[in-house]
Amino acid sequence: MKLWDKGFSIDKQIEKFTVGNDREIDMHIAKYDVQASLAHAIMLESIGIITSNELKDLKRGLKELADDIKNETFSIEASFEDVHSKIEWELTEKLGEVGKKIHTARSRNDQVLVALQLYYKENLSIINDKTKTLFDTLLSLADVHKESLLPGYTHLQVAMPSSFGLWFSAYAELLIDDVYLLNGVSQIVNQNPLGSAAGYGSSFPIDRELTTKELEFATLKYNVVAAQLSRGKNERAIASALGGLCNTMSRFAMDVCLYMSQNFNFISFPDELTTGSSIMPHKKNPDVFELIRGKCNKIQALHTEMVLITNNLPTGYHRDFQLLKENIINAFEDVKDILDILNYAIQQVIVKDIDLNDEKYQYLFTVDSINNLVVEGMSFREAYQKIGEQVQTGTYQADLGKEHSHIGSIHNLSLDKIRAKFPK
Question: Is residue 417 left, alpha or beta, with left meaning phi > 0 and alpha meaning psi from -120 to 50?
């Protein structure tokens, strides 16, 4: 069944190319299409297009479909073009002629738009919750390991003292910035496009404020052309926000891989969280973190894809938009999995004691030594030159006891203030 069927068959090769794998992707938005159809039916009854008895029938039929989707007994067979045609067919099979009325005053264009935006809205909220869980885990690890010093690096050269508390809480606070962006995108998608039909509205006296209320959108996308133009704009914003979150996680995963290597040897994990080599029996590979890094980097590329698909399209609907669905939905599903596995794995990190008296860390405290001389009255430039000379002549002796007391430093992590910053 095709919603645009006019009584002739389309070329099979053309059909295969244009439908693509929409049926598989549409399973992710099936429940949202049912929700939108219910709101639309309630609105149609309110303006007299269908009767109260027809609405009761549609409610019953849509409830049965919602249950089928929840119980995973709903499917979209090859004879259907997409989820929208399958749902209309099911309603017609169950209810007869009233099932054919559900498409009144809407187009597949606004039908897929509203289903996608409901999917985006709910899944952005889920990702927010999972990000908060990871945030809490990282702050907890920061608190547990706040006394454990860690060499800090710039240019991958030993630089200044850091700590595991500073490292874990740094990435926790970066997640707050990612949530700011996610919340901004949530506002963008929290606008009801239903009623824009094919992009130019309808001559039916539809009540768009009613469907907005029924679907719990924060507001309408009032202009019907703007509603259609939001297709692609939504996905670009989402890809940017998901990419920001993935940037944080990929950099953290890179640190983990680096710190696990024998040359650093700062952390480890239980054997069951690592993998081995087919020929090197000593190997404990951080495959999970390497895959987190790779998947996150792949998702960061998604924004470019969304831009290039939609960048120069003129006003109105174009079939190019179909290409947005698959990778943006896959990105949502991947990000949820990544957040779950990263949170699960990092809780089992084994933080090692690091001997900062090791020769390779002998210059880790040069800045502290300079600061000590400045506190004693020497100018910074003179102190810098004096410690530099000691480094050059091999006479430098480190002072490991310097306190870093300002907000956000090694000995004043301000975890309570970071925790309070997380958006409510």
Answer: alpha
